[in-house]
Amino acid sequence: MKALVYHGPKKVSVDNVPDSKLEKLTDVVVRLTTTNICGSDLHMYEGRTDVEKGKILGHENLGEVVEVGKAVDTVKKGDKVVLPFNIACGFCANCERGLTGFCLTCADPSVMPGMAGAAYGFAGMGPYSGGQAQFLRVPYADFNCLQLPKEDAEEKEKDYVMLSDIFPTGWHSTRLAGLKPGESIIIYGAGPVGLMAAMSARIQGASQIFVVDGQPDRLALAEKIGATTFNTKDENGAIGDQIRELTNGLGADCGAECIGYQCHNSAGKEVPNLVMNSLVDAVKATGTIGVVGVFVPQDPGAEDKLAKKGEIAFDFGKFWFKGQRMGTGQCNVKAYNRRLRDLIHHGKANPSIIISHELSLDEAPNAYKHFDNRDKGWTKVVLHPQAA
Ligand SMILES: [Zn+2]
Ligand SMILES: [Zn+2]
Predict the structure, then answer these.
(1) Mean pLDDT of the 21-47 span
(2) Ligand 2 centroid vs 171 CA: distance in angstroms?
(3) Segment 215-251, tens digit of pLDDT
(4) Which of 102, 139, 174, 283 is a plausible cystine mate for 116, CB 3.0–4.6 Å?
(5) What residue spans define the domains of the chain?
């Protein structure tokens, strides 16, 4: 089969590799029809992780089941399914509590003592191949496959594929932030996840949605979703002051971090603590901050001395003084994806509006280049691995 393979920093190519196959009785193999490039793939692409050469990338996957292991009960050949980027067993102590992003059975404990969680095609998340490929092996298929409605699986495929990661992850940021109907939220980042956070906040009845980013094309999408936007490159003073002006001097009720450790200041310099400290400033006293942007335990490629060890200079004093709270970590996709699927099915959510490019798998290396350069207009790339 063809697959997108990582060969080193900024080196990926579409290679012929051995076909995905059933390895355990609980597996299925899916013929992928849509798979996305994610902002978090760029951390690996840029060599800012310890991902091994030869890894097939891709964790946002949707397709049709073509092979079924003997111990799989509910998934049948021909089913259209979307796969959470987390690979989870469904029966460990964390999965039992709904924390499927921290599965203990599928994790690779050699990464870090106490490590939990697994994913397709991702640094430090186990030996699993990714789905920027023609086929994908899905472990614990009964648990991990989300069935799509027969009547619109194809028509809404580009919406449903967002259930693999960015829609649940955006939603998760608002849940970690404890958003309640009628409250205001400030979202840092108008990339795909930040835009999904804005859409989620709208669905959940936020009174004001503030989105902060430095890219006008992305901010325009946020406005389309119903957000009030702030361009970090405009010289209107500190974002916190602008937010307080719009919230009776208090600050936003809650905040969401949708950027992660590779955030940049308005001059384009990477400043890993910038967004976290801006959120502490812009969120009201007693407010909660949800952090879904990726931070890593070590980042040897960083320029910043602290960041090399996975640390940031965090305004903990201000955070403590304001009595704020914080929730962090990757999204437990299974906690939300079934209900978010139904929002799409019934026309209440349309995450595909953020797609900027639909390409074949062969075009993926070029797409990585543009997406990594943050070239104008490259918001979200969707690949169709079966297209010629
Ligand atoms: Zn992703
Ligand atoms: Zn588990």
Answers:
(1) 96
(2) 21
(3) 999 999 999 999 999 999 998 889 999 999 999 999 9
(4) 102
(5) 2-165+332-384, 169-328
Residue 177 to residue 253: CA distance in whole angstroms: 9
Which DSSP category does 113 fall into?
T
Strands (E), the chain: 2-8, 11-16, 28-37, 61-68, 80-83, 135-138, 146-147, 184-188, 208-213, 228-231, 252-257, 283-291, 325-328, 357-360, 381-384
Q: 3-state class of 144 per DSSP?
A: helix
- Residue 352: which of 200, 157, 213 has the closest Cα? 157
- Mapped onto helix, strand or coil, the DSSP state of residue 5 is strand
**Cβ-contact 103, 88 below 8 angstroms:** yes
Please choose, from the candidates 265, 271, 276, 329, the residue with its C-alpha nearest in 3D space to the C-alpha of residue 302: 271
Is 2-165+332-384 in CATH node 3.90.180.10?
A: yes
Cα separation, 88 vs 376, in Å, equals: 36
Protein residues placing their CB within 5 Å of the ion ligand 2: 88-89, 92, 95, 103, 105
* pTM of the entire predicted model: 0.96
- Please give the distance, rounded to the nearest whole angstrom, from the Cα atom of residue 307 to the centre of ligand 2: 30
Overall fold of domain 169-328: Rossmann fold (3.40.50)
Q: What is the largest CA-CA distance in the chain?
A: 62
Distance 138 CA to ligand 2 centre (A): 14
205: left (phi over 0), alpha (psi -120 to 50) or beta: left
Total number of residues shown for the chain = 388
Q: How far is the CA of 128 from the centre of ligand 1 (A)?
A: 15
Residue with tokens 């648990």: 143
Q: Using CA atoms, how far apart are residues 239 and 245, in angstroms rounded to an integer?
A: 10
